[in-house]
C-alpha cells in the first residue's frame, strides 16, 4: 500500500478523502492539529472503513515535528495538503493569520518532500483563485483575476509556489484541485461537516437552523445580478470531491515525467443561488427554514461555476451526486449529531 500523508485529514474534506483513499488501496496517514476539527472524526472514519487510521496530532507549520513524522513513517509516496484556514470572512478581518498559516504550511510540506523523496503532491486549492470571473463558466485557462479576499490570495500564491518549484527542476509531480463549494456528508452519517462556532458556510447554517440550534439564516445580499439576486455557487457533494483526490494521485502515478504540474476544476458544472439551495433543502426534508436578507458580505464573489471538461477528459473524474443528494446527506448528518447530543444529556 502506498502511504499518503493527508494534512488536515480530520477536517470535512480531508476525512472523506481518507475513506476514498483507503477504499482505493492507499494507506492514509492523517496529520491534523485539530484546531478546526474534532477527534471524534477518527471514530467515524473507523466505523465506515472498519479499521483505525494512523493519525498524528501535529501542526504542519512545525518543521521539527513534521521531520519526526516523515522520518518515522518512511516511504510516504504522496501528500494531499488540505491543512489551511479557509473562512473567507475571517480572512478579510485577519489577513496576517491567513498568510502566515496557509503559505508556511505548504512551504514546510515541500521541504519534507525534498528531504524525504516524496514525489507526489495534491494541493487543496479553490475556485477563489479566479476572483470575480468575467465569463462563465470558468475553465482552467480563465484569467487569474485579483482575489476578493486574503483567503483567495493565499490559494493563488500557493499554486504559484508549487508551479515555480516544478519549473525549478525539482523532482516533483503536483496537481492543484480548484474546488468549488463542497457540501453534504458521508451517506452513512458517520462523518460530515463539523464547524466550530458559527458556521462560515451556507449548508451547515441551514442544517443547524432546521435543527433549531440557530434562530435564522442570514442571506448576504439579494441585489446581485443573478436570477433571484443572491450569490451563485457550484455546490459539489463532498464524496464526489474526495474521489477526485484519488483520481489526482492515480494521474500522478501514471505520469512518466519527473516534473509535472497541472490544475483542475472540481465542480458539477452548474450553479445554484443561495435561495435555490434553501428552497431545495425545504423540498428534500419537508422542513421550513427561517431566513432573512442581510447586507452583502465582504469578500463574496457574485457568481461562479465550473467548466469541468478537463477533469472529465484528463483526470477521468466527474461528479455523480446531485444537490438534492448532498442536502439529504447533510441533514442526515445533522440529525445524527442531534441524536448523539441528546443521548449524552440523558442521565445514566
From TrEMBL:
Broadest EC class assigned to this enzyme: isomerase
Keyword Transcription regulation: no
Highest taxon of source: Bacteria
GO molecular function terms listed in the Swiss-Prot or TrEMBL record: UDP-glucose 4-epimerase activity
GO cellular component, one term: cytosol
Keywords on record: Carbohydrate metabolism, Galactose metabolism, Isomerase, NAD
GO process annotations (BP): galactose metabolic process
Catalytic activity annotation: UDP-alpha-D-glucose = UDP-alpha-D-galactose
EC number: 5.1.3.2
Residues annotated as domain NAD-dependent epimerase/dehydratase: 4-267
Matching CDD domains: UDP_G4E_1_SDR_e (cd05247)
Family per record: Belongs to the NAD(P)-dependent epimerase/dehydratase family.
Subunit structure comment from the entry: Homodimer.
Protein's UniProt name: UDP-glucose 4-epimerase
Amino acid at each position: 500500500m502506498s502511504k499518503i500523508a493527508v494534512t488536515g485529514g480530520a477536517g470535512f474534506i480531508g476525512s472523506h478523502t481518507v475513506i476514498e483513499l483507503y477504499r482505493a488501496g492507499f494507506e492514509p496517514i492523517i496529520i491534523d492539529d485539530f484546531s478546526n476539527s474534532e477527534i471524534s472524526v477518527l471514530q467515524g472514519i473507523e466505523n465506515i472503513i472498519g479499521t483505525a487510521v494512523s493519525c498524528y496530532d501535529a501542526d504542519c507549520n512545525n518543521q521539527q515535528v513534521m521531520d519526526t513524522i516523515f522520518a518515522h513513517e518512511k516511504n510516504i509516496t504522496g501528500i494531499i495538503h488540505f491543512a489551511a484556514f479557509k473562512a473567507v470572512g475571517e480572512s478579510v478581518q485577519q489577513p496576517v493569520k491567513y498568510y502566515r498559516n496557509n503559505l508556511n504550511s505548504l512551504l514546510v510540506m515541500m521541504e519534507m518532500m525534498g528531504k524525504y523523496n516524496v514525489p507526489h503532491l495534491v494541493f487543496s486549492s479553490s475556485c477563489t483563485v479566479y476572483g470575480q470571473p468575467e465569463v462563465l463558466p470558468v475553465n482552467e485557462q480563465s484569467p487569474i483575476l485579483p482575489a476578493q479576499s486574503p483567503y483567495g490570495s493565499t490559494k493563488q500564491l500557493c499554486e504559484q509556489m508549487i508551479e515555480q518549484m516544478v519549473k525549478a527542476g525539482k523532482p516533483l509531480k503536483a496537481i492543484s484541485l480548484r474546488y468549488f463549494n463542497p457540501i453534504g456528508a458521508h451517506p452513512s452519517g458517520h462523518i460530515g461537516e463539523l464547524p466550530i462556532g458559527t458556521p462560515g458556510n451556507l449548508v451547515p447554517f441551514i442544517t443547524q437552523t432546521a435543527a433549531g440550534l440557530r434562530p435564522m439564516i442570514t442571506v448576504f445580499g439579494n441585489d446581485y445580478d443573478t436570477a433571484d439576486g443572491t450569490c451563485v455557487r457550484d455546490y459539489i457533494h463532498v464524496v464526489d470531491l474526495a474521489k477526485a483526490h484519488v483520481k489526482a494521485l492515480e494521474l500522478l502515478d501514471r505520469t512518466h515525467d519527473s516534473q509535472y504540474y497541472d490544475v483542475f476544476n472540481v465542480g458539477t458544472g452548474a450553479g445554484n443561488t443561495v435561495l435555490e439551495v434553501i428552497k431545495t433543502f425545504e423540498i428534500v426534508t419537508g422542513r421550513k427554514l427561517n431566513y432573512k436578507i442581510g447586507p452583502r458580505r465582504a469578500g463574496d464573489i457574485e457568481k461562479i461555476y465550473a467548466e469541468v471538461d478537463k477533469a472529465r477528459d484528463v483526470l477521468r473524474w466527474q461528479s455523480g451526486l446531485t444537490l438534492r443528494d448532498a442536502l439529504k446527506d447533510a441533514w442526515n448528518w445533522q440529525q445524527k449529531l442531534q441524536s448523539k447530543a441528546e443521548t449524552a444529556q440523558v442521565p445514566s
